[in-house]
Design brief:
Strand order of the largest sheet: 15-14-13-12-11-10-23-24
Membrane topology: Multi-pass membrane protein
Number of strands: 24
Distance between the termini: 34 Å
GO biological process, one term: establishment of competence for transformation
Helix content: 40-55%
Pfam families: Competence, DUF4131, Lactamase_B
Number of helices: 27
Subcellular location: Cell membrane
Keywords: Cell membrane, Membrane, Transmembrane, Transmembrane helix
Radius of gyration: 29 Å
Structural class: alpha/beta
């Protein structure tokens, strides 16, 4: 059964690697696949693989057919529909999903994009899931920042079936609002909203509200960056994702309690044995808890396995753990073939598979404490390849942290959270007292985890291993943790070595690599030489818990295996250039910080960038502007202008300089200002890239760091035309994603910009 499930999964995974959606005519192969599945044992695995491929194709075709009409992007359109999710209040807006039933523009109806995601700025009153509403909105097709090592927002939106994003311009007030629809999906969202709102009131003033909310209803938006850093460093993230541990605990407690309660009545026991009554009651409690958690993928997997186990127990049939896992895998993929795009899918199923595989042959011959410790070591070793491939880091203290944290959470915190939640609805004051006690128990564990997270070498961070190294690592872990009787298990260690020792290529001496990162409407570029690295600007900050330093710059550096930055240059003080600085400083060892606004940086000893120059590995770096720290330049015109040269090749990074600074550079440097690669000033604004500057620089390639359909319409058409008139090739990050170039004396094939959106394109992009 497990091999059949793996075959179905393989077909879906193969489909997910395609960069273009195949024709739906391929679905004509489905009858042949079903025939081989039903009538040929020899080819049933191939048949299931084809079925998985075609099932994903059919679902993908349906989802992509709901894309917003490209002609409607950034237009004010009217949408009618239903609030589809529990709204979340952010720092600046209310965010919610909306199921569109009708879309119109200029009194003409267009095809509905299905589900869209909306932000409502300045709105504080809550919407109710299932409510019918009409809004005037501005929409865009799904589009995200694409960078090596970064989060693929477009993939996430695709998995969620969201085919447009935008914001509310106005609401059309209806005289009589319809009652919220009672469809199960909307009713569940309303139920979760009610519980969440109640808990937010009851938990006011408690220190660990975010953890309680995560355990009670699966809402983790109250957790801050520090909380996540502690959880990552200790390998305890899974404790706040409602999954098998939590579902099994609730079902087990329900089984014990209701079996005992049922056994108190002989009349009831004569009609239904106490154990069966307990099984059914425990399952219903687990189902309710899963609903509170919103049926996330780890929850789905656990609930399906529990369902099969309960049914088998009621029918008095023995079901192997492997059969349970295989059934859950097939059921999840039938319900949602795009679950494979989720990290949680792989970690959840891999963890259970590891425990089933690694604990076989050991359970009956060891004490419980040995089995518990061995289980933690199994997970630490077995998940190592996945964690390094997905996150470029792994916790070294995870086994010890989990040995302490899992029992504490399972037998104290989670039961208290759920019991306190129930009591708080019946007796509010008593609920507050119980939650206060719960908060104290969480605090005891949390202080322990914080101490462990602060230990030297609490986690290992490295480059992203290539896919072939990941596969070697999986083989190594399977061999290493194999049950007794498998010979030469120590050879598994050798198979793990490629994960650690295969490092990314670095430029040769006299060469450098520049990557203009896709940070939306902002700027950040990474320059790597043979032995050194520099980052120029760090993107925008959009709130306390979201900035491009954390979302883009740090993941890129970790992906490349860079734990140290020799220099960070912050061109000037605008948010879209300096916003991500704190996140970079917290995550990366920064040696020097150069900027035109040292007074704006209070958590690092910054130097003024003026008149700085140095050489790394045969590559020359020079600040061309401002000419001194005492000059009159202010604002955009104070931007640090950095030139990087290797032999005859050069790059010019200009920040946000405008006409005055450009003309000053032209007057001072004249022909010395010419360059091969230019990162255009001020994102291609009309206030920059003057005719004199463009003619003097004579760039061969011009790069525009801009956001997709940004409100300023950067780069300005006039500026793009000005550069193309000189023969320059132009690229922008909104269309290309991150853009990389390798420059230097020994590069003989000319300039060859690599677009990450092209090289890493999938069919949903």
């Amino acid at each position: 059964m497990l091999l059949l499930a793996a075959s179905f999964l393989t077909g879906i995974v193969i489909f997910q690697q395609l960069n273009v959606l195949p024709s739906l005519l391929w679905a004509l192969l489905l009858p042949f696949a079903l025939f081989s599945l039903l009538f040929s044992k020899k080819y049933q695995f191939v048949g299931l693989c084809i079925c998985g491929f075609l099932w994903a194709l059919i679902r993908a075709d349906i989802t992509l057919s709901e894309n917003l009409d490209a002609a409607l992007e950034s237009k004010e359109v009217v949408v009618e529909g239903v609030v589809a999710s529990m709204p979340r209040q952010g720092e600046r807006s209310l965010r919610f999903d909306f199921d569109v039933s009708r879309l119109s523009f200029d009194d003409k109806e267009y095809a509905s994009p299905g589900r869209i995601r909306l932000s409502w700025y300045g709105q504080t009153s809550q919407l109710i899931p299932g409510e019918s509403r009409t809004f005037t909105v501005k929409l865009k097709r799904p589009h995200g920042n694409l960078n090596p090592g970064g989060f693929d927002y477009e993939a996430w939106l695709f998995q969620q079936r969201i085919r447009a994003v935008g914001y509310v311009r106005a609401e059309h007030i209806q005289q009589e609002l319809e009652s919220p629809t009672h469809r199960p999906r909307y009713a569940l969202a309303r139920f979760r909203q009610t519980v969440t709102a109640h808990l937010q009131t009851v938990l006011t003033g408690l220190e660990h509200t975010g953890i309680i909310m995560a355990l009670a209803v699966g809402e983790r938006q109250s957790l801050n960056n520090h909380d996540w850093a502690v959880l990552r460093a200790t390998g305890t993230n899974h404790l706040l994702a409602i999954s098998g541990l939590h579902i099994g605990l609730v079902a087990g407690l329900g089984l014990l309690f209701f079996s005992w309660l049922w056994s108190m009545s002989a009349w009831l026991c004569l009609r239904l044995p106490a154990r069966q009554a307990g099984l059914i009651s425990g399952f219903l409690l687990a189902l309710l808890y899963s609903a509170l958690a919103g049926f996330a993928i780890p929850t789905q997997r656990a609930l399906i396995m529990l369902t099969v186990f309960v049914v088998g127990s009621l029918l008095k049939r023995s079901i192997s753990p492997a059969y349970l896992l295989a059934t859950a895998l097939i059921a999840v993929l039938l319900w949602d073939p795009f679950a494979v795009m989720s990290v949680g899918f792989w970690l959840s199923f891999a963890a259970v598979a590891l425990l089933i595989y690694g604990m076989s042959g050991r359970l009956a011959v060891r004490s419980w404490w040995w089995r518990w410790g061995w289980a933690q070591c199994l997970l630490a070793v077995g998940l190592l390849p996945f964690l390094l491939f997905m996150f470029f880091q792994v916790s070294l203290i995870a086994p010890l942290a989990n040995i302490i944290a899992v029992p504490w959470m399972s037998f104290l915190v989670v039961p208290l959270v759920l019991f306190s939640t129930l009591v708080s609805f019946l007796f509010n004051d008593l609920g507050v007292v119980l939650f206060t006690i719960t908060d104290w128990f969480i605090a005891v564990l949390w202080h322990t985890l914080e101490f462990m997270a602060a230990l030297p070498m609490a986690q290992w961070t490295q480059h992203a291993p290539p896919v072939w190294a990941l596969l070697c690592g999986v083989v190594g872990t399977v061999w290493l943790i194999a049950p007794k009787g498998i010979p030469l298990r120590w050879i598994g260690v050798i198979w793990l070595l490629p994960l650690l020792i295969v490092v990314p290529d670095r430029p040769l001496k006299g060469q450098f690599e520049m990557t203009l990162l896709d940070v939306g409407q902002g700027l950040s570029a990474a320059i790597i030489t043979r032995n050194h690295a520099l980052v120029y600007d760090v993107g925008v900050s959009l709130g306390d818990n979201f900035d491009m330093g954390r979302q883009v710059v740090v993941p890129f550096l970790q992906y490349r295996g860079l734990s140290t930055l020799d220099v960070v240059v912050v061109s000037h003080g605008d948010n879209d250039h300096i916003g991500g600085l704190n996140s970079v400083i917290e995550a990366i060892d920064v040696q020097r910080l150069l900027t035109s606004v040292p007074q704006k940086i209070d958590n690092f000893k910054a130097e003024h960038c003026a008149q700085q120059s140095w050489t790394w590995d045969g590559v020359y770096f020079e600040i061309l502007h401002p000419e001194s720290a005492s000059t009159h330049w202010q604002g955009n015109n104070a931007s640090c202008v950095l030139r990087i040269s290797a032999g005859d090749d050069s790059v010019l990074l200009t920040g946000d300089i405008e006409q005055a600074a450009e003309l000053s550079l032209v007057a001072r440097l004249r022909d010395d200002l010419s360059t091969d690669i230019l990162v255009a000033a001020h994102h291609g604004s009309k206030t920059s890239s003057t005719i004199a500057f463009v003619d003097t620089v004579q760039a061969k390639i011009v790069l525009f760091p801009v956001g997709y359909r940004n409100r300023w319409n950067f780069p300005a058409t006039k500026i793009v035309d000005r550069f193309t008139a000189t023969g320059a090739q132009v690229y922008d990050t909104a269309q290309e994603g991150a853009i990389s170039l390798l420059l230097g004396d020994t590069i003989n094939d000319g300039f060859n910009p690599k677009s990450f959106r092209d090289t890493s394109r999938y069919y949903w992009h």
